[in-house]
Amino acid sequence: MDFTLPEELLIFRETVRKFVEKELEPISEQVEEEDRIPGHIVEKMKELGLFGLAIPQDSGGYGMSVLGQCVAMEELSRTNACFRTRIGTNNGIGSMGIVIAGTQEQKRKYLPKLASGEMIGAFALTEPNAGSDASAIRTTAVRKGDTYLLNGTKHFITNGDIADVSTVMALTDRSKGARGISAFLVDKGLPGFSVGKLEKKMGFRGSTTCELIFDDCEVPAANLLGREGEGFRIAMQVLDKGRLTMGACALGALEKLLELSMEYAKTRVTFGEPIINRQAIQWMLVNMAIDAYAVRNAVYHAAWKLDRGERVTKEAAMVKVLATEAAGRAADSAVQIHGGMGYMKGMAVERFYRDLRLLRIYEGTSEILRMIVAREMTR
Amino acid sequence: MKILVAIKPVPNPDEKVKIRPDGSGIVLDNIKMVINPFCEIAVEEALRIKEKQGGEVVILTVGPKEGEQQVRTALAMGADRAIQVEAEKGLDSLAVAKFLAKVVEQEKPDLVILGKQAVDDDNNQVGQILAALLSWPQATFASKIEFLDGNKKAHVGRETDGGIETIEVPLPCVVTTDLRLNEPRYASLPGIMKAKKKELKVIPSASLGVDAAPKVKVLSLASPKERAGGRKVADVAELVAKLKNEAKVL
Ligand SMILES: Cc1cc2nc3c(=O)[nH]c(=O)nc-3n(C[C@H](O)[C@H](O)[C@H](O)COP(=O)(O)OP(=O)(O)OC[C@H]3O[C@@H](n4cnc5c(N)ncnc54)[C@H](O)[C@@H]3O)c2cc1C
Question: How far A60 CA lies from chain B's nearest CA (Å)?
């Protein structure tokens, strides 16, 4: 087995690592304080091509392999999570529906601009009464001539307030359950479409999550994605694809936490010795290293399989559970190793501890993903 | 303007290097190689000149095949094509300069830019030797480059101990870069995609008819002594006395 990455990926990994170390990490705490990413940094992210990793080349993106996307996300996740979230929707849930099911016209209209970062995309499935049970959504879309009238409320929508186009799931036929759900591309500023409450969150400062409200919002029929009733299938495909890159995000954070903890343990002296000399501390570090090793191999292997065109529904679900739970454990150990300092604002481990908690919840909770694995195992 | 930029892959300066137990060199396993930071500045400067007045930027490196990744990185930054003289590791400065001179004779650039030194051995020699071999003028440690009279000459600000010294050199010439000349760009993803299609010509070193036999031999490497802590002195008189009698530097 050959584990060497292709040359272009080695070069890109180097670029992203340098960008993170030189430009993102130094402002990481500032972004945490101000709760926003400075505009010039977003411009740099555009120049580097970060918004178009996953969008195919014939649609103006860079069509990176899933392995390549994982490498990029791993590197970007070594700093404040808001940075990779800014490019995350364009490379994932905010564009993949169009890539999978868009018409030529829809692809031409949105994908090149999503790839360049000129447009931001969002994905709106979740509602107050429909999270894990996504088929329970209540937002409706009623055909009226050349338009659909959308009514309902979505919540917890990442980048929803800054999105130029949102992929919105709504019921076109209530009687058919999940098969009655359709997907729509909703442009910013349509009459009847507004941004509701911006959530105050435990973490992910610098990144926004909000309500989207549809009140007799008229969406042109040309903005139906796929056919009526295909929305749920499209949504599940979109989410399926993101699980591996989410695993890579957890991996990057886990590796960074290990590095930070090693550094701290070497320099913190108690009872006349650096704490790294104590077995209790060593075992925490070793467990983090074991996890990092397992997660890294699992993420890369599943990505490699997917790039070969194999079906990885089970692996992707397993990888997301494995990686995000390992990162959670690592964050807990990292705070422990840092002692009281680990509980203080301004310390990276404190931020990671809060931010990583989300990864076990969104884009499929650990429980729902285990259900998927169980289903795949008993197929 | 046609610009040739010579680059050298070096061990990543952000990583800690270890000396081999026998002192014959440094341990290179698991050390990431990068473009020498001064060379990266040279690439950036060439690209800026090209963006201003057009022309061509050619990357040139002398060394083993593994250096290809750093060459591709320079192409991804925006250079047009590259030449790699495939040679063994560890050539001395004179040998490298001789190979560079051969390629310069073939390519006939208007300007050759190099880093002032490579951060591995810190020799600070190749640019100067190259200029001598070519009988070209040289402007080393550049922190500013300006072209005049339709590129017939350049004004180069040089970083010296006493401050910036500006000299005038006719073209073609050799320039070596200092740290403050510019801030190099990243190899962006669009750049990396384009670089895949750019020409990388490999020339076997044997075909250039150069006597590369080493004139310099590394006897052994050793780590610098651990720094001892400083000492506080009460006043200037004590300082002067100590410098005179203990350190014996006055
Ligand atoms: C910061 C943030 C950003 C988000 N971004 C987006 C976005 O961009 N777009 C979007 O559409 N959504 C987004 N979400 C929503 C997210 O995907 C949902 O929160 C998630 O799917 C869980 O749904 P829920 O919150 O309704 O929890 P619930 O579904 O109510 O789950 C509550 C608990 O019950 C468990 N549970 C549920 N059903 C079962 C079962 N059958 N068996 C066992 N256990 C079960 C769950 O695992 C969980 O532990 C975001 C959420 C957050 C917090």
Answer: 10
